[in-house]
Amino acid sequence: ADGQAAIAACSRLLENKALAPAKRAEWFAQRGWHRYRNGQGAEGVGDFGKAIALDATKAGYVLGRSRAHRQAGDFASALADADKTVAMEPKWSHAHAARGFALEGTGKWVDAIAAYDKAIAIAPNDATWYDARCWARAMKGDYLVGKSDCDKALELDATSWNSYNSRAYIHYRLGNHAAAVADDDKAIEA
User: Fold this and answer.
1) What band does 1 get if pLDDT is binned at 50, 70 and 90?
2) Nearest Cα residue to 83 out of 58, 68, 100, 71
3) Burial class of residue 189 in the structure, from the number of CB atoms within 10 Å of its CB (0-12 exposed, 13-18 middle, 19+ buried)
4) Which single residue of 38, 47, 81, 185 has CA 20 to 30 Å from 71?
């Protein structure tokens, strides 16, 4: 629960000079994930880079670096790593979604939607991908189609505050202010 403590614990483990390269890579990746969760994208990029240098076969390390790049605002590098992840694991929904998230950062909504389409085709019961596509469609101005994605996301996960928030935005843009407030209230409650 304490991100800084987790980062410190990983750092202590990495001080062990006898750590095998594969284990060292795992701990760099773990520290990278904790840094990402703690909002330290640039530091996460560095840790994932060290993990990849030790073991370039782990798609999860490349995916982690993609997310950390995105958090640090480097969408071109996030997309490059997402593309590498897709090449390594073409049937992994998270890899395609990472492409979508990176493309969102550059405002390429149509391409982001296509990436989320692939993630949904692989994992049709993952509410997160419907929510992501909902938002991309809303940003593109396709409010009604986007709303149907938010509805599906909430059907799959009624506790998703982000899906309520995304749908509230769509209601607002459509002029349905009472529905927007109701969804924002649900987002706050969740």
Assistant:
1) low
2) 100
3) exposed
4) 185
